[in-house]
Amino acid sequence: NYNGGILREAEVRSILELRIALDSLAIRLWLPEAKDEEIHLLRSYVEALKTAKTTSEAAEFAFRFQHELAFLSGNTLIPLIFTSFKVPVISLWERFCRMYGIEQLYANSDTLCNYCEARDVDKATEWISSSLNESIDGKYTIYY
Length: 144
Description:
The chain is mainly alpha-helical. Helices cover 77% and strands 0% of the residues.
């Protein structure tokens, strides 16, 4: 409820910058040793996101994907940090979907999942950085 639940540009930027760091760390810790069933679970969230009927449903599946990735890292703090930001993160995904469509959120998640399936740590971390930077100050900014 900070600032009446309204995220200012500085808070949005800060959350996305933190996501770049934490998601990249999670990939580097997990992906070299990833099991097929773990990647399959991530893929199931991406496919559920694809068929989401509402922005809130899409945001929830995106959160589940990111939280599972955080959990799979083996770092016990990453999923806790991610969960502590659930409300603002969900609202940012909903905003993204309202502005650019569920299809674009699916495309972003699908691309990351494809790199995970290929077990390509470098491409996955590059994609995390580039896609989130597009939301910070690129063609998919999510500021009001």
